[in-house]
Amino acid sequence: MSSTDRLKGYLPGYYAEIVEMNELLEAEGPEFDLLGSRVEELLHQAYPEYATWALDRFENELHIVVDAGKPIDQRRSVIISKMRGYGKVSGDMIKNVAQAYDGGTVAVAVVPAEYRIIITFVDTLGIPPNLDDLKQALEDLKPAHMALEYKYRYLLLREVQAMTLNQLQQRKLTDFAPFLDT
Q1: Other beta carbons within 10 Å of 3
Q2: Side-chain half-sphere CA neighbours of 75 within 13 A
Q3: Could you tell me how many helices (H) and strands (E) the chain has, helices first?
């Protein structure tokens, strides 16, 4: 229902016969529609998951180096992970931050005896596109004495054998083997 119809519904029935009132409502209705969409857009800018033109404000507030050349989804993931990364560092926090970058399932194993944190990308094939930003975020987050280790998933031979030729042709080369990553 448009704002014009809504405005007409608020008025007593006898206003429907007044031409000037109908013209006024026809002129003001679209203005209210535009106002509503602008308010909704402004509200979206308050949340990094939906923000577009306000991303640089989040980046400045969180002391993130602004790189306008990056795709919006990568800029959002940096912001979201930085926001998730406050507080006491734990395996769950590291997992939460890593998943903000990757968008898929990430397994985190903390091996205190070896001073290592192992991050395994479960759903993502090959090296994630935003890996450098993720590495930097986790370096800033983790305790200084712990080392980070990353494990990537590639297609297994049994998975490749089960694919049709068309399915194989749809895959990127980097899904098949680590030496094909650039």
Answers
A1: 17
A2: 22
A3: 8, 3
